[in-house]
Design a protein that fits this description.
The protein is 46% helix and 16% strand. Helix 1 packs across helix 4, helix 4 packs antiparallel against helix 5 and helix 5 packs antiparallel against helix 6. The termini are far apart.
Length: 376
C-alpha cells in the first residue's frame, strides 16, 4: 500500500494516483496541502508530517509518494520521521520507465537516468555509505564506501553513454538512408496515455503494445505508411510526455526524442476528452522546445472523440493545409481525414523510384517528338 501526497488540484491528484497504480502500488489514501514555500528539512510542515504519519499507521501504508521533487536531505529526513520508505515524483516515474522498458536501448536509457538520480542521493541521502571500510577482509586503500559507490556509478554511467552513443549513430545512419530514399518522416508526440500507440496501430496495423495506462510505450517504432498511389510516409511512435518530466529522463532519452526534432512533420496527439488537455499541451510544447523540435510543422490530432459523442472533422489553416483533425483511433473514425491532412503537408518530391533528371529528359523528348515523326 502507498500513501500519495499532492497539492490539492484535482487533475494533479488524479495523475499522481494513476502514476502510482501504473507502478503497481495500491493507493490507500491521498493527503493534500498547500504551502507558500517548502520546508527546507521536510518539504511539508511538521503538522502535515504528523498527519501523514497517523494516516500511514491507520492504513498500514508501506510507502509514501510525494508529488514533488525532494532534495536528498528532505527524503532522508522524511524516511526517518515517517519510519517508511519515501519517494518523490521523479523516482516514481523512473520506476515506471524501468518497468515498461523492453528494448536494449530503452533499458540503457532508463538505467542512465536512474544512476543520474541516484548519484545526487549519494551526497547527503544515505549516511551509512560514509563509513570507512574496515575490519578483517574489508580493509581498502583508504576509500570510503561513499567514494567507492560514486566511482562505480561514474564508471557505469560512462559505459552507458558510450553504448547509447553507438545506438544513436546507428539511428542516424538509418535516418540518412530514409532521407536518401525521399521518405517523408512523421513522428507521433503527445502526453502520456493520449492514444499515440492506438493511433499508430490504426495507421500501420503494426500491433504495437497499447493500453489504457501511463507510459505504455517507451521504445520507438517506425513503419512505412502508404497514403496514396506513389505516396508514403515513415511514421514513428515515440515515448509519451508528462508535466515536470524529469530532466534526467529527457537527457537519457534525447536520442529517441530526436526522432521528433528530425521529423518533417509532427502529429501532436491530444486526449480531447481530458478536461486538463490545455495544460497537457503546454507540457508537450515545453519538452519539444527542450529537444529542439519547437519549430517542426505539426498537426494537432484530437483523439478519443468517441468518448465525447462528436463526429470526426478536420480544420484547415489559412493556407489550405489541414492543421487540426478530430478522430477516434480506437474505432478508426477519422483516419482517412488524417491521411489527407498529412498529404496536405507533403512537398511535391519526385518519385524515389526515378532519378531526379528523368522528368527533364522526358520533357525534352516530348518536345522533339514532332521532328522525329517528320523524319519517319
Amino acid at each position: 500500500m502507498a500513501l500519495t501526497l499532492g497539492q490539492g488540484l484535482a487533475p494533479d491528484v488524479q495523475e499522481l494516483r494513476a502514476l502510482a497504480e501504473s507502478a503497481g502500488a495500491e493507493v490507500s489514501a491521498v493527503i493534500s496541502g498547500r504551502r507558500d514555500r517548502p520546508d527546507p528539512a521536510l518539504f511539508a510542515g511538521s503538522g502535515k508530517c504528523d498527519e501523514i504519519f497517523l494516516a500511514c499507521q491507520e492504513h498500514a501504508a508501506e510507502l509514501v509518494i510525494f508529488d514533488h521533487t525532494l532534495s536528498p536531505g528532505q527524503q532522508r529526513n522524511l524516511t526517518k520521521l515517517l519510519k517508511r520508505r519515501v519517494i518523490d515524483r521523479v523516482a516514481l516515474i523512473l520506476d515506471i520507465f524501468a518497468l515498461r522498458a523492453r528494448s536494449h536501448e530503452g533499458k540503457l536509457q532508463v538505467e542512465l537516468a536512474q544512476l543520474d538520480y541516484l548519484s545526487a542521493r549519494l551526497v547527503r541521502g544515505w549516511t551509512h555509505l560514509e563509513r570507512q571500510k574496515g575490519g578483517i577482509g574489508l580493509r581498502g586503500p583508504g576509500e570510503t564506501q561513499l567514494e567507492t559507490d560514486r566511482r562505480l556509478i561514474g564508471q557505469r554511467v560512462k559505459q552507458l553513454r558510450s553504448r547509447l552513443a553507438l545506438v544513436d549513430k546507428q539511428r542516424r545512419n538509418r535516418r540518412r538512408q530514409r532521407d536518401r530514399q525521399g521518405a517523408f518522416s512523421v513522428s507521433l508526440v503527445g502526453y502520456t496515455n493520449a492514444g499515440k500507440s492506438t493511433l499508430f496501430n490504426a495507421l500501420t496495423h503494426a500491433g504495437v503494445y497499447a493500453a489504457d495506462q501511463l507510459f505504455a510505450t517507451l521504445d520507438t517504432t517506425s513503419r512505412r505508411v502508404f497514403l496514396a498511389p506513389g505516396e508514403f510516409m515513415v511514421l514513428s511512435d515515440t515515448v509519451g510526455f508528462i508535466r515536470e518530466l524529469p530532466h534526467s529522463l529527457i537527457e537519457a532519452f534525447k536520442s529517441t526524442l530526436h526522432e521528433a526534432a528530425d521529423a518533417d512533420l509532427l502529429l501532436h496527439v491530444i486526449d480531447a476528452s481530458d478536461p486538463d488537455r490545455e495544460l497537457q499541451q503546454q507540457a508537450v510544447d515545453t519538452v519539444l522546445a527542450e529537444v529542439g523540435a519547437a519549430n517542426v510543422p505539426r498537426i494537432e490530432v484530437f483523439n478519443k472523440i468517441d468518448l465525447m459523442g462528436i463526429p470526426p472533422k478536420s480544420e484547415p489553416d489559412p493556407y489550405g493545409r489541414i492543421h487540426r483533425v478530430w478522430l477516434s483511433a480506437a474505432d478508426a473514425k477519422g483516419i482517412d481525414a488524417l491521411r489527407e491532412a498529412v498529404r496536405s503537408h507533403m512537398p511535391a518530391f519526385p518519385s524515389p523510384e526515378k532519378e531526379p533528371w528523368s522528368g527533364v529528359v522526358s520533357e525534352h523528348l516530348n518536345a522533339m517528338q514532332p521532328s522525329v515523326q517528320s523524319l519517319l
